[in-house]
Design goal:
The protein has helices at about 40-55, 75-90, 115-130, 150-160, 185-200, 205-220, and strands at about 10-20, 30-40, 95-100, 135-140, 170-175, 235-240. The protein is α/β, with parallel strands linked by helices. Strand 4, helix 4 (about 150-160) and strand 5 form a beta-alpha-beta unit.
């Protein structure tokens, strides 16, 4: 009897947009954060378009860059709509990895530089996202410095080894991008800023406090200063101590 050869179903591709906050070794900040927005590739054009549209609807240029450091009371309705967008699309998710910088001791690993340690932490942030073997992943990270290209390629190799993707069939792209050109990377900056600010215990910005409370309400997060369950979907957080 003639039997048809089964047709392989292509894996769904997820785009991961990674960003960092206060990653410098001596910047005077006690909490460092790494975070990523995850979006199915088939939805990225739609979400990027919606984020651009929100800017125009609120009287801003389409090329305005959403950044946590720019948060102020004048754009509160805009921030509310951005958070509604994130909360409303079930397929959008975010993972943050927070680090208490006061406990960092590079001397425990002979020869380790802060830059090398930084990418080890990036690996720890990304690994729970990419270790699900049913999917393919494209990873985009914000440009950090002029030496970032080599480090990002190393990060890709380490990630592939860490999840047993020795042929590069699951993590098929790891590259640097400019945040002002990628709406979803700006969203990662914004949400990571929320998590980092809350864990610093800062209260000097009324606007930022208001955005944090909006995020908790809209996304359904009670406490941003705690780790979530390992497989928490919408908002996933680990605090490294």
């Amino acid at each position: 009897m003639y039997r048809k050869t089964p047709i392989a179903t292509p894996r769904e591709v997820f785009n991961i947009y990674g960003d960092e906050s206060c990653h410098l070794e001596n910047d005077g900040q006690k909490v460092m954060g790494l975070g990523a927005v995850v979006c199915p590739m088939r939805h990225t054009a739609e979400i990027n378009h919606r984020l651009k549209t929100l800017k125009v609807e609120h009287g801003m240029p389409e090329r305005y860059e959403l950044k946590w450091t720019r948060v102020g009371m004048a754009k509160m309705d805009y921030y509310a709509d951005v958070l509604d967008l994130f909360a409303g699309y079930k397929f959008l998710r975010f993972r943050s990895f927070l680090i208490n910088k006061s406990i960092i001791d590079h001397s425990l690993v002979p020869g380790q530089t802060h830059d090398e340690w930084y990418y080890k932490m990036y690996y720890k942030m990304l690994k729970p996202i990419v270790e699900v073997d049913d999917f393919e992943y494209h990873i985009y990270v914000d440009i950090k410095d002029t030496h970032g290209y080599e480090r990002v390629q190393d990060l890709g190799r380490i990630l592939r080894c860490g999840i047993g993707d020795y042929n590069g069939e699951r993590i098929t792209r790891v590259q640097e991008v400019r945040s002002h050109e990628v709406e979803l990377l700006q969203l990662a900056d914004f949400i990571l800023g929320i998590a980092v600010y809350e864990n610093r215990g800062e209260y000097n910005s009324k606007a930022k406090r208001q955005v944090i409370e909006m995020f908790k309400e809209k996304v359904g997060v009670r406490d941003l200063t705690r780790c979530t369950p390992y497989r928490a979907h919408k908002f996933n957080q680990w605090i490294w101590e």
